[in-house]
Structure formats: structure tokens, C-alpha cells
Write a structure and sequence with these properties.
Serine Threonine Protein Phosphatase 5, Tetratricopeptide repeat, 8-stranded mixed beta sheet, 3-stranded parallel beta sheet, Arc Repressor Mutant, subunit A, 748 residues, alpha+beta
């Protein structure tokens, strides 16, 4: 026994040692980032080291150096934007510097921000807040409530308790809801009015009084009468009645009022409603009216069987129903609807019969709402961009093509909205995002649908390091809003979306799992290495595609917990800024969860000359035969870059794939209301003769058979044979084709 315990503790100790990075290792890693001038990332590693050991001097020294460098970078950008008159950008850059300084200070490391920066910040902050306040008041006067609300929120963030902002924000927030509630009252939509007023604080005008008025007008009063028991089970009627009452009470419906049952029974006894005790429909209605009920619930129990199966709840037309999936003595379940293909084709039936499916789509909406709230709170602007595009750009994918009759030009369903969103950054927006429907004319599987939803966001004056932290915070927030916890189960894995996430370079990932270092390798060398790894590659693949194939085949599936794969080779990222330290790499990351990519982000390429060269390289790959390389150059986008796009970071997230992870669904079809399906096979509606059935069975079994051989096997006379084969071909059940090999019959 002692030996077993010792082995257990030994194994536990080994696992702890393996899983935990020491302050020394974290500091060493931070120093490497610092040497590469990746000061922000270096700081994060020093924070981790000091969280493990508060007095670790090398980490403090590293934090002091990298923190000063990063803060000075923020302050330099602050000074530049201030001088250009871009007050808002300058304010947020100073806040980034101040927040980092404050965080560093918590580790007893002091970094000084010169007083003149503080004075400049306070000056432009006062000017900006006052200007924003006046703008918000003007919008409020014009009854542009939503825009005014956003400005008041920003003022509260930048300068809490400024003038009467709290009061004005409440007006901007609640006045439109208040007016909506009054309109609904006038339309006698009492329940909708109630829920509108319920969103408003009770002290706002007379919202509470109007809410109670709407509730009273929309009240539905229900009397539960005595259930008559015609079974041999004693007392079961009381249990049924109690269960019904309990379930109705659980609804917590503000418009449902149950009439006191004791009073109801007293009334029934007094009125003697029928010699047998049975309550007749007409009499029940009168009874209900007399006791103030709009409806009466009663019934007769004629049989009673005890089942261990749970009662599942479904909703239909505003009523709560109950469906029992009955299981017989042999364990066979009836009234199930679980065939995947039928469920996807008839989602309406799936939702009615399987209430847990509806919960998936409720969570999907929660995810979108949470993400939208997160972006709105950060001050970014939601936009819409074209779905029909003259040039498919922003990604490497095969598009769907259509034709515009009036303009007589081809148009493409968008494969991505990236280039249009970047145009808006050029146009002066600080940050824009869009939930976009994208379309890619490619394969279908458990994680791909030709029509899918992506979220893309672009923020000016940020890089991919900032975006990594932003992404972590976003996904942690969304997980909490959807599931109430940062953890989610996906198959056999438990995923934790709590920040921070591990970071691994593409080069290190490939070297770790294959032993092959891609650094400085030519296209031919990488192709040869891929073939040695038994990866299916061909001569049409360029360097980037080859690296992608190696990573996808040998590395990607090994990353279960959220992990950033960073610093992609330039050939893999035609829209990404060149790495600040290595011209062969780009500043890009992908977030991998359970072996699948769910987010892709860059420091965006904003050099029009470099961008044009990248596009031209893609054209060469397309000419070479790479069907995923772009065949177009968006010259208008290049022109936009020539006007000038500020340093920008962008990120795309596959929303369908993300909700799969948050709801433990292995198939993308489970999280789409109406996934794309193959054409439904039509049932045979043609009346076939016995001979035709026999011959068709022969063809189906063989799939392809020589005509004379089939005729011989059928044993039919010439007349019957001719009639049979003509009928099968006429009804498109079989076809006869002639080739050099002979004449063959094939099943269709």
C-alpha cells in the first residue's frame, strides 16, 4: 500500500513539474521577447513570473526595462496623434500607458510618466469631454437617443460624475423604451408593454405605474378544478393536480394568476355540478366566470401508469406543452426524432420534438449579443459591407459567381469582408466590426458549410500583440455570458477560455512536432520534407501552401486548449504586415482550440507597394494551378492604401465554429438553423411492373453491367425485354451508354 501511495505522489509531482513554468523560465522567455522589441508581450511574461514569485529580481528588472519601452512607445504615439489634432486617439493611447504603468506598479516597480504628458492629457481630456458632452446634448435634443447614449457612456468612462451625464444617459437609454411602452399600451398589446416598462427603472417618470397597469390588463386567470379519479390508484388525482399547479407556478409568468383551489372546490361543492361529479364544459365556464377566472383546467383520470422517463418541455404558440417519450419493457423508445439528416431538413420538427436543440440557438444569440456588447463598450462601430462584390478579396477561397443582368457584369458572393472594412479605417473610423455572411464554393464537412457567419473587427493604431490580449478578454467574456463559466466541454475535452492563452510560433510548432525547421528553406526543400512526412502535396502548391499543409497535418490537431500560433511565413499571409524583426515572417496569429482554428488576426499590411507585390505573387500561384490563390487584384483597395491607412490590427472569428465549442456540438450543422444539404432523394412514385422491378434490382446491384449480359440474366423474351428497358430509361431510372468497350446499362 505504501509503495502504491509513493508512486501516486511521484506521478503527481512529475505532472506538476511538467505543467508549471518556473519564474526563471518565464523571465527567460520574456527576455527573448524584449530582445525582439516585443515589449508588451515581454511584460505579460514578467507578470506571470512575479505572480509565481513576487520578489524574483530578474523579472522585476525585465519588467522595468520592457515596461518603460512600451510606455514610452504609447507616449510617443500619444504625442504624435495629439499634434495631429486627433484628440480621441491620443486620449486612449495615454490611458493605455497609464493602465500599464498602474499594473506594473502593483508589482512594486515604478515607472515615471513625465508631468508634461499628464498635463497635456488632462488638457485634451477636458476639451474632448466638453466637446463630446455638447454633441451628446445636441443629439438628445434631436432625439437621436442611441447615438447620444454611446457618447454619454464614453464620457462616464473617461471622466466619471461629469456634470449631469448620469441623468442625461438615463434619458437617452430609457426614453425610447418608455415611448415604446406607451405606444404598445395604446395598441392594447399589454404584455409587450409590460416587458418594455420592466426594462426601465421604477423611478423613471411613471414607468412603474404603467407597468402594473399593463400587467393587470394582460392578466390571464386560471382556475384549476378537481381532477376526477376513475383509476384504482388512491390519491393520484391530488398528486396530478399538485404537479400541474407546481409546474404552472414554476413558469413565473407575470400574466398567469391561479385562482385559490380551496375556494374553487368550495364553489364546486356548493353548486353540485353534475350527479356523477363530472364537470361539464359549459358549467365549468360559468364556474370560472363566477370565481374570476378566464379559463378552467380540469380532467378525468381513466388510467394510471408509472413511468421513470422525464417529462420534456416544448413551446408552441405561447402554450407550455409536455411530451413523454415512452420506453417499453424491451427498452425501445417511441416518438423519437433523432435521424440527423431528417433533423436538419425538417428543423421545424426537430425544434418541437427535441427542446434541447432550441437551447443551442438561444446560446447562439447570446453569443452574438455578448460579442456586440463587448465591442460597443469598447467604442467600436458596427457596419455593413456589400455581399455582392465585383472582385472577391480578403481571403484565399473559391467564390460563388453570379451575373448582374442590368450592368451585364459578373458578381461574386463575398468570401470575406476584410478589404471593405479596411477602406473604412482609411476613411477615418477608429474601429469597425461586422457580423458577415460569407460564401465559399468549397467542400462540406463537419466544420464547414458553404454559407457561414464570420465576425471581423479592425482597430486603428493597434498591432497583433494588442489584438491577442483583446481576443482573450473577448472570448472569456463571451463564454461567461453564454454558459455562466469560462469553461466548456467539447467531446472528451474540457476547454477553459479564461485568459491568458499560450503562444507558440509557427516555426516552433512545426519543429516541435516534425523536427523540421522551415527557417530559410526553399519551396523545393519544404516540398521534399512534406513528401518525407507522407503528406499529399503537388507541384501547384507554393511555399505558403506547403507550410500550411505540414502544420495542418502534423501540428494543428495537437493543440486542445486555446493556443495562439504566431509569426506566420510571409507566403502564407498576403495581407499581413512584415514582421518587425524577421522579413521572412509576418505579424499574424491564429487561435487554435481542439485542433481547429476559430480566430485569425494580423498587424494589417498598410504599405501599398508591398501589398501590390503580394497580390502579384498570388496571381502567379493561381496561374501555376493553386485553386485557392486569388485571381484578382483589387486596385481600388491599393488606391485606398495609397491615401493612407494607419497602423491597424484586424481579427476574424468563425461564429459558427465558436458556438460549436460553447455548446459541445461536433458538427456545424447542429448550430445552423438550416444547413446546406444535398438534394433530397425523391421517393419512387412510378408504378413498376414485376419485370421492371427485377431488372432494376439487377442494375442497382451491379451499378454498371453490359447490356447483353443483363438481358441474358433477366430471362425475358425479346418483346418483354424491349418494353422493360425502354420503360426504365424513359423514367430515368437507368441509362444505356455506348463506348469502345461495348454497350452498358447504368443505374441513375
Amino acid at each position: 500500500m505504501k509503495k502504491s501511495v509513493s508512486i501516486f505522489y511521484l506521478i503527481s509531482f512529475i505532472l506538476i513539474v511538467i505543467s508549471c513554468e518556473t519564474p526563471r523560465k518565464l523571465t527567460k522567455k520574456g527576455n527573448k521577447y524584449s530582445d525582439k522589441e516585443m515589449y508588451y508581450d515581454a511584460c505579460q511574461l514578467y507578470f506571470k513570473a512575479l505572480n509565481k514569485r513576487k520578489d524574483y529580481l530578474p523579472a522585476k528588472e525585465g519588467l522595468k526595462f520592457s515596461g518603460e519601452k512600451q510606455i514610452n512607445s504609447y507616449l510617443d504615439d500619444f504625442f504624435k496623434t495629439k499634434n495631429f489634432g486627433e484628440q480621441r486617439k491620443a486620449i486612449y493611447l495615454f490611458r493605455d500607458a497609464f493602465q500599464l504603468q498602474s499594473k506594473i506598479k502593483r508589482y512594486y516597480v515604478n515607472i515615471y510618466i513625465p508631468q508634461h504628458y499628464v498635463s497635456d492629457y488632462n488638457q485634451i481630456l477636458d476639451e474632448y469631454v466638453e466637446k463630446t458632452y455638447n454633441e451628446a446634448i445636441s443629439l438628445l435634443d434631436k432625439e437621436n437617443f442611441s447615438q447620444a447614449e454611446e457618447l454619454f457612456k464614453e464620457i462616464n468612462l473617461l471622466k466619471p460624475n461629469y456634470k449631469d451625464v448620469d441623468e442625461m444617459k438615463d434619458i437617452a437609454t430609457y426614453e425610447p423604451i418608455y415611448r415604446q411602452g406607451n405606444n404598445l399600451l395604446e395598441m392594447q398589446k399589454f404584455r409587450s408593454a409590460y416587458y418594455a416598462f420592466n426594462r426601465i427603472p421604477s423611478n423613471y417618470k411613471d414607468a412603474n405605474e404603467l407597468k402594473l397597469m399593463a400587467q393587470k390588463a394582460g392578466m390571464f386567470t386560471l382556475a384549476i378544478l378537481k381532477f376526477e379519479n376513475y383509476t384504482s390508484s388512491i390519491g393520484v388525482e391530488s398528486a396530478i393536480s399538485a404537479n400541474v399547479t407546481e409546474e404552472l407556478m414554476k413558469l413565473n409568468n407575470p400574466f398567469l394568476k391561479l385562482v385559490n383551489r380551496d375556494l374553487t372546490n368550495t364553489f364546486i361543492n356548493e353548486q353540485v355540478l353534475g350527479m356523477s361529479g363530472q364537470v361539464e364544459e359549459g358549467t365549468s365556464a360559468k364556474a370560472g366566470e363566477l370565481i374570476g377566472a378566464k379559463a378552467v383546467l380540469t380532467g378525468k383520470l381513466v388510467t394510471c401508469n408509472k413511468l421513470n422517463n422525464p417529462i420534456s418541455k416544448v413551446s408552441k404558440k405561447g402554450w407550455s406543452l409536455r411530451r413523454i417519450k415512452k420506453t417499453d419493457a424491451d427498452g425501445k423508445t417511441y416518438d423519437e426524432f433523432n435521424d440527423p439528416e431528417l433533423r436538419y431538413r425538417q428543423r421545424y420538427t426537430d425544434l418541437v420534438v427535441n427542446p434541447h436543440v432550441k437551447e443551442v440557438f438561444v446560446k447562439r444569440t447570446k453569443l452574438f449579443n455578448a460579442m456586440r456588447t463587448f465591442f460597443n463598450d469598447a467604442g467600436y462601430f458596427e457596419v455593413e459591407t456589400p455581399i455582392l462584390q465585383p472582385i472577391p478579396g480578403g481571403a484565399a477561397a473559391r467564390p460563388f459567381v453570379t451575373h448582374h443582368n442590368s450592368l451585364d457584369i459578373p458578381l461574386f458572393m463575398r468570401i470575406a469582408n476584410e478589404l471593405y472594412l479596411k477602406r473604412l479605417i482609411v476613411g477615418g473610423f477608429d474601429g469597425v466590426f461586422e457580423f458577415s455572411k460569407n460564401f465559399r464554393n468549397e467542400g462540406m464537412d463537419r466544420t464547414h458549410n458553404p454559407e457561414f457567419t464570420a465576425m471581423e473587427i479592425y482597430v486603428a493604431y493597434k498591432d497583433y500583440h494588442w489584438m491577442m490580449e483583446f481576443c482573450e478578454q473577448l472570448l472569456e467574456y463571451c463564454a461567461l455570458q453564454v454558459n455562466g463559466t469560462s469553461k466548456a466541454t467539447f467531446g472528451k475535452h474540457e476547454i477553459d477560455f479564461k485568459a491568458p492563452y499560450a503562444r507558440v510560433t509557427m516555426t516552433d510548432a512545426i519543429q516541435h512536432f516534425t523536427g523540421f525547421d522551415i527557417t530559410g528553406k526553399t519551396e523545393d526543400e519544404i516540398r521534399a520534407a512534406a513528401k518525407e512526412m507522407d503528406i499529399d502535396v503537388d507541384e501547384t502548391m507554393g511555399k505558403g501552401k506547403l507550410i500550411d499543409e505540414i502544420f495542418g497535418e502534423k501540428c494543428e490537431g495537437n493543440y486542445i486548449q486555446p493556443t495562439y500560433i504566431t509569426d506566420y511565413p510571409k507566403e502564407m499571409s498576403p495581407l499581413t504586415k512584415e514582421h518587425r524583426k524577421d522579413p521572412e515572417l509576418t505579424e499574424r496569429f491564429e487561435l487554435i482550440v481542439c485542433g481547429k482554428e476559430i480566430a485569425n488576426a494580423y498587424s494589417e499590411l498598410n504599405d501599398p507597394i508591398d501589398q501590390k507585390e503580394r497580390f502579384e505573387h498570388q496571381l502567379k500561384l493561381a496561374e501555376k494551378g493553386d485553386d485557392e490563390a486569388t485571381e484578382f487584384i483589387d486596385y481600388d483597395f491599393l488606391r485606398a492604401l495609397e491615401y493612407g491607412m494607419p497602423p491597424t490590427s484586424g481579427m476574424g472569428i468563425g461564429m459558427d465554429r465558436l458556438i460549436m465549442f460553447l455548446t459541445n456540438n461536433q458538427s456545424i450543422q447542429e448550430v445552423l438553423f438550416f444547413p446546406q444539404m444535398r438534394p433530397e432523394k425523391k421517393s419512387l412514385s412510378i408504378e413498376l411492373s414485376d419485370e421492371e422491378k427485377v431488372v432494376l434490382a439487377m442494375i442497382t446491384k451491379a451499378e454498371r453491367i453490359e447490356l447483353n449480359e443483363l438481358k441474358s440474366q433477366s430471362g425475358l423474351s425479346n418483346k418483354k425485354w424491349d418494353k422493360t428497358i425502354k420503360s426504365l430509361t424513359k423514367n430515368k431510372l437507368a441509362s444505356v451508354t455506348k463506348s469502345e468497350e461495348g454497350i452498358f446499362v447504368e443505374v441513375l
